[in-house]
Amino acid sequence: MSKGNNSLIHPVWLRVTHWLNAIAVLLLVMSGWRIYDAAPFFDFVIPKNLTLGGWLGGAIQWHFAAMWLLVCNGLVYLACNALSGRLLHKFFPLSPRALVADLVSALTGRLSHADPSQYNAVQRLAYLFVIADAVLLVLSGLVLWKSVQFPILRELLGGYEATRRVHFFAMSALVAFVGVHLVMVALVPRTLLAMIRGR
Amino acid sequence: MLKNFSRHFVISNDVVLKDVRKDIGRYVADSSRRAFLQRSLTLGGLSLLSGCDIVDENSVDTALSTISRFNDRVQGLLFNPSHLAPTYADSMITRPFPFNAFYGEDQVVVVDEADYQLEVGGMVADKRTWTVAELRAMPQIDQVTRHICVEGWSAIGKWGGVPFANFLQRVGADLSASYIGFKCADDYYTSIDMATALHPQTLLALTYDGQTLPPKYGFPMKLRMPTKLGYKNPKHIKAIFVTNTNPGGYWEDQGYNWFGGS
Ligand code: HEM
Asked: Shortest Cα distance from A126 to chain B (angstroms)?
């Protein structure tokens, strides 16, 4: 891989899928919060103005439209990533030692951002985590939508009611990731430019 | 009807949180009702984020409905008639089983069995009406299954009655037709696909928990489908008709997904 200043850091398919994914996640989270509000299983509801859809039926329509975007776009991302070999070389190796070292230098403000084409170990772990979390969200969503048609998945996730919680906690983890993700982007704005322009 | 719209919302079997959740449900329902009256799907927080109305609401509505129709077809394809919904032990029945309708429990219609006749119409060979006694005379089964509401909550209940497939065969229904429509004594209406109608767990339920179906659960009969969300399960049925034209439904016509099931 060339590491010259003008070389491409993010191929176009990555940039397109990344931003489509961001849109899908925004729509799914906001409409999902409205659906949660219809029958909350915790002692709180999500403020109405943070939700999408207006009423339950509208929120469900958004949710079940945006799910197609998330899934189709996610499959394109995973396929391109895996088949091009990018997945392996961008996210691996990932050793606990490198993780601790990068975490320590990040917290002490000594993390190097000299080579924007390389993800540090903490980033690698965070991205792999959110990819796995998105897969869990899709699978648990599938059980909530079609619980009778996916009996094995349903039982693996602990049945219908347990799956509602799994779906909620996976959403919470994703939202937490996005929060940290955005702070990191704000700290190193150069990466945002690269995610838009490719370099 | 709208006055009691809020009653449609949350009923939890968790005693401690019940009242809290009822209030929450009412709060949520109130704002839903406003949106409902506007008869459009607002972009809610999204337009708040962007600070303006970025998209024309009508075209958004149309696009979302189109995708919802597409989802009906996908669900029809995914539906495997030999996959059964899980069944449970009697000890797992949710007590009390939540009441749920588009009106309050104090407004439940009470059908008089003496005057009652079930109408059967559309693409069937035998259009004569049925009394409840005639339905009780048919072979009955019962099952303990999970009722899942579109709102997300679920509750386990026990329904008994006539397997709907047997009833359809008995009246000589054209089983190659696409839809079965239902009209109810409480002015509710809905419709289902033929594959679900013929599913072995689809029951023309006459009993709840071993007792004659009480008015609040749909006397004299309810179509009970553990493969469908609650709003697809009509209560107080007074007419059943077989058709190739999608009859829609009370909630479906307002935007709930038509297939609405698992
Ligand atoms: C509008 C909000 C978002 C912004 C501004 C943003 C920005 C970025 C940027 C700048 C990068 C490149 C980081 C680098 O080169 O060091 C990146 C990568 C990434 N982002 Fe986001 N992101 C957003 C939303 C999301 C969401 C919602 C998700 C997933 C839930 C997500 C998942 C990822 C992943 C997995 C990568 C690594 C992709 C790869 O290299 O294969 N992002 N994001």
From this structure: 26
